């Protein structure tokens, strides 16, 4: 087996080491009958087709597998791939407990072991959308999708890394701490607060260009707003911040016929 790319290896170690921290949230999301999205559990957004009967779907970076479960409950046959074996242990346990049939693969969403045009729909809530290189995982999603197949993904808004202090302290600030243009790869291993792995993001125009150059047609772009202001902090941002500026973004795109 070929050696893993550096960011894949680092992120695998990171997520295996912190998998226990995400068990409770995974259990809660598996129990939900109505999906909510992102760090603010936004119910107004639904990134999944309402009826997925007969569809073949893949979650790119499935973590504990709750989005995969939501798709299976809507009628899809679902594959979930994730870089963390320990996250997949939780996903397999919860799938068995809830009686949901999923195929779960330990692997890198930049190189999925499935033939071209295997799926009707692909999704990533964070997962590959944050932790994989978009120059690699978006063309891979394109390869995997059939003509007219859809891709939906949610990840950090580019303002998040731009407003993140250079030492990685939290929460993010109301200042521009880093350049906007030219951003791509962010290594958080030495962050003062909540040391992490390697994330990816780009200016919004670069997202549009990469999606278009890959061949996708953008159907919707959503800048997610925290529902209410306040001092509550979610992961890296306060509600006050995220009510004024977008901390997350969601994309809905399609591979043309």
Report on the architecture of this protein.
This protein is about 30% helix and about 25% strand. With about 260 residues, it is an alpha/beta fold. Helix 2 (about 25-30) packs parallel to helix 3 (about 65-75) and helix 2 runs parallel beside helix 4 (about 85-100). The chain is globular and about 50 Å long. It starts with 5 loop residues before the first helix and ends with a strand. The mean pLDDT is about 95.
| Total number of strands | 11
Tally of DSSP helical segments? 9
Question: What sequence of helices (H) and strands (E) makes up the elements?
Answer: HHEHEHEEHHEHEEHEEEHE
| Radius of gyration computed on alpha carbons | 17 Å
Task: Note the overall shape.
Answer: globular
Task: Determine the strand fraction and express it as a percent band.
Answer: 15-25%
Strand order in the sheet with the most strands:
3-2-1-4-5-11-8
The structure class reads alpha/beta
Structure summary:
This protein is an alpha/beta fold.
Using brief descriptors, characterize the structure shown.
257 residues; alpha/beta; seven-stranded mixed beta sheet; two-stranded antiparallel sheet; 23% strand
Question: Helices and strands in order, then pairings?
Answer:
Elements: H1 6-17, H2 23-31, E1 56-60, H3 66-73, E2 77-82, H4 85-98, E3 103-106, E4 119-125, H5 128-131, H6 134-144, E5 145-156, H7 159-162, E6 185-187, E7 198-200, H8 204-214, E8 217-224, E9 233-234, E10 237-238, H9 239-244, E11 248-254
Parallel strand pairs: 1-2, 1-4, 2-3, 4-5
Antiparallel strand pairs: 5-11, 6-7, 8-11, 9-10
Helix pairs in contact: 2-3, 2-4
């Amino acid at each position: 087996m070929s050696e893993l790319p550096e960011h894949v290896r680092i992120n695998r170690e990171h997520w295996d080491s912190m998998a226990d921290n995400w068990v409770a949230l995974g259990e809660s999301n598996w129990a939900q009958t109505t999906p909510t999205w992102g760090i603010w559990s936004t119910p107004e957004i639904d990134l999944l087709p309402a009826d997925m009967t007969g569809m073949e779907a893949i979650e790119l970076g499935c973590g504990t597998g709750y989005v995969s479960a939501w798709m299976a409950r809507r009628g899809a046959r679902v594959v979930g791939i994730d870089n963390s074996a320990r996250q997949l242990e939780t996903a397999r346990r919860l799938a068995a407990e809830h009686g949901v049939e999923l195929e779960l693969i330990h692997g890198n969403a930049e190189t999925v072991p499935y033939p071209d045009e295997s799926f009707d729909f692909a999704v990533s809530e964070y997962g590959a959308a944050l932790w994989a290189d978009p120059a690699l995982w978006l063309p891979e999603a394109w390869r995997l999708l059939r003509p007219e197949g859809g891709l939906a993904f949610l990840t950090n808004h580019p303002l998040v890394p731009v407003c993140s202090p250079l030492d990685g302290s939290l929460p993010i600030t109301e200042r521009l701490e880093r350049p906007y243009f030219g951003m791509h790869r962010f290594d958080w291993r030495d962050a003062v607060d909540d040391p992490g792995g390697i994330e990816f993001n780009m200016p919004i125009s670069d997202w549009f260009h990469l999606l278009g150059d890959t061949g996708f047609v953008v159907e919707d772009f959503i800048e997610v707003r925290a529902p209410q202001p306040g001092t509550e902090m979610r992961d890296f941002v306060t509600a006050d911040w995220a009510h004024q500026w977008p901390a997350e973004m969601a994309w809905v795109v399609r591979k043309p016929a």
